[in-house]
User: What shape does this take?
Amino acid sequence: MAAADTVFCHNQTIRRKTILLQRCVLLLAYLVITLEAVPIDIDKTKVQEKEHVESEKVDNPDTGLYYDAYLRQVIDVLETDKHFREKLQTADIEEIKNGKLSKELDLVSHHVRTRLDELKRQEVARLRMLIKAKIDSFQDSGIDHQALLKQFEHLNHHNPHTFEAKDLDMLIRAATSDLENYDKTRHEEFKKYEMLKEHERREYLKTLDEEKRRQEEAKYEEMKKKHGDHPKVNHPGSKDQLKEVWEEADGLDPNEFDPKTFFKLHDVNSDGFLDEQELEALFTKELEKVYDPKNEEDDMVEMEEERLRMREHVMNEVDINKDRLVTLDEFIRATEKKEFLEPESWETLDQQQVFTEEDLKEFEIHISQQEDELQKQALELQKKREELQKQQDQLQAQKQELEQAVQQMEKKKLQQGHPPSGPNGELKFEPPGVQPVANTQNHPAGNSQHLPPGNIPVQEAAAGSDHVKSHP
Assistant: This one.
């Protein structure tokens, strides 16, 4: 089974977006097939029994890329081609990154190429719909077309119908760059988070009187002191830190610590590597010394930043070839260094300065500019709303004027003896002096109903006319 299909998913979702370069890009994902972990004999009587998950297929964690689904589908299709997989087994990372392996796409089966063509057409159609939606939403305020074109950096949009070697090369380069910059982006977001917290705290203090301000300041200092009062944190990746995991998490005798056995135990998916997620899991015990979700003074966002710092530090020290994977050989070499046995003390976030006063000042200026821009937009929207309301009031006034004019016309018609008209111009009743035909049936001959002077039934008038003609 491919390594990408056996990735172990941990429960902490905030770290799931950090995905290995090899496991997100097809090329790097299958590179791990070529290497195997060194067999290690483990005393099963000393190892806690773990849940068997080998037969289960675990989905890859979300990379956080906007083209994540497309990337996954391309990987799934390419892995079905035998020739391509064989080339991957002998390719190194540099050949993968420089595009040499992408040329092998020309030799894959026709069925695979056809399926890749279909995936690309679907992705192009999706991106076109996305861009159209953005253009429609910004049509009144302008749009940055260059920013929209960045949506196509992971494929060749000049040829939207067929998947070529250039498309695979662009996909590799885009995913590589995006994933390598992901940690940097997380650090920047955390710094903004910390500055925003401090900005809001200072703004709140401005709303208080002197006495309450002193109380809030005292409480703030007390919380900082309480948070900093925690057990010593072992240097990440040091012998002391790993032995603590060996003893408390693995339940093994600390005097029998063995690096090879440790590596095997924590290579959760048994692919012969410690990936970034498996490394981060090793720091849980250290983080629990500093952060507790039940404590008001402990910020869980800061805990995840601390976890990221620990993982990056170990990777920089241990990952010799910088492929974001730790092999058994790299791990063993790290345990032979002096830093492993005699590490320097580890400074946690509360012992470091995340930002300077100058950083905070620039951040507050940026916030002020954003607020001014939002205020400006709010005023423009309010102005448009008032204009629309004014137009609506004018239309309502015109409607009332028309209704009054119609009523006056109907009133004049009645005064002049004309019947009022219905909605379609029809007469609502017959003119005076004309008896409706329907009413004559209600008054048969012989009826003694009295009529007003000068009114004679039509039938009687006709009979009288005939009588006069027969008697000249």
The first strand starts at residue 273 and ends at 274. The chain has a mean pLDDT of 77. The radius of gyration is 42 Å.
